[in-house]
Amino acid sequence: MPAQNAHTPSSVSFIAGGVAGGVEAIATYPFEFAKTRVQLRNQSGAASSKNPFLVVGQVARTEGYRALYKGCSTLVVGSIAKDGVRFLAFDTIKKSFADPETGALSPINNLLAGMCTGIVASTLAVTPTERIKTALIDDARTAKRFQSSLHAVRLIYQEFGIIGMYHGYAGTTLKQAGATAFRMGTYNILKDFEKSRHIDQSTTTNFVNGAVAGTVTTYATQPFDTIKTRSQSAKGASAVDAIRSIIADEGVRGFWRGTTMRLGRTIFSGGILFTVYEQIAAILNPLFS
User: Fold this and answer.
1) Is 208 in contact with 148 (CB distance < 8 Å)?
2) How far apart are CA 61 and CA 183, in angstroms?
3) DSSP label at 47?
4) Which of 82, 90, 240, 247 could cross-link with 125 by S-S, CB 3.0 to 4.6 Å?
């Protein structure tokens, strides 16, 4: 997320972040869909195709193009909540880590504030919505029990209780804490470097910085994402069972399965998220100031 203006009200951070998260989720969802299918197992227990593009083509041929957006509504709702909470939480949490005299954050404190923000977002929004999204994608290729997102929520709650909505919590939280810390840290380091070289901060600069930050974040947190996906399949599994199945299928390299399609999403999502956030914040700031 971008370094926020000190005068931006918290309400603006929440609304602008939520809108930006929703737009980003819709625009990049096919990448997320393909990545999730690549990480899941087939009914026989074997891993699915390693080529995400083949997965997209096969799904389009056999299930139709609409299937590529299976679970999208859940992810959009989750992204609106996640990014709204993330921007608001970081705006609040960073004050605890800021220098009392200058109000500035050191690189280490930026990372710590980002990690805490990721934990909050995972608990309040990300884990439940990711669980439903992943279960819908998995169910669409297997049992086909879920008729809609709400139907999936009802069935999962009936079978597992509220804890069923938090399958994969450990992996999701580790991923969110790491992703937010790496994304914030990398973005701010790049921005500080550019300021020291008198490079103007524009939409293009923000997009490039977000793309680089997204790349670093993806490689650093991909194992957590793979564990999360296996844990949140339609049947559900513990983090330990997910780790065992990944190692049994492909060894250590299996933890980085789906990296290509996740990169496709995170590279573009950074630019989209930053651009939309800045535009919405610019519109709302005069109304809330």
Assistant:
1) no
2) 36
3) B
4) 82
Residue corresponding to tokens 């380091």: 189
Identify the residue with better confidence: 118 or 6.
118
**pTM metric for this prediction:** 0.69
CB 115, CB 177: distance < 8 Å: yes
Cα separation, 114 vs 199, whole angstroms: 25
Residue 47 — φ and ψ, nearest 5°?
A: -70, 155
pLDDT at position 143 is 72
Residue 250 pLDDT grade (very low, low, confident, very high; cuts 50, 70, 90): confident
Res. 131: pLDDT tops 70: yes
CA of 221: how far to CAs of 217, 258, 274, in Å? 6, 12, 21
Tokens at residue 233, please?
A: 């399949």
Of the candidates 104, 38, 57, the one whose C-alpha atom is nearest the C-alpha of residue 259 is 38
Which element (helix H / strand E) includes 210? Answer: helix 203-231
Q: Which of 237, 227, 249 is nearest to 167 (CA)?
A: 237
pLDDT of residue 172: 85
Residues 211, 201: Cα–Cα separation, whole Å: 15
272 vs 80, 85, 168, 170, CA distance in Å? 14, 18, 27, 28
**Residue 256 CB partners (closer than 8 Å, separation 6+):** 219, 222, 223, 226
Q: What is the mean pLDDT of the chain?
A: 82
Residue 267 CA to its chain's centroid (Å)? 12
- What pLDDT sits at residue 161? 92
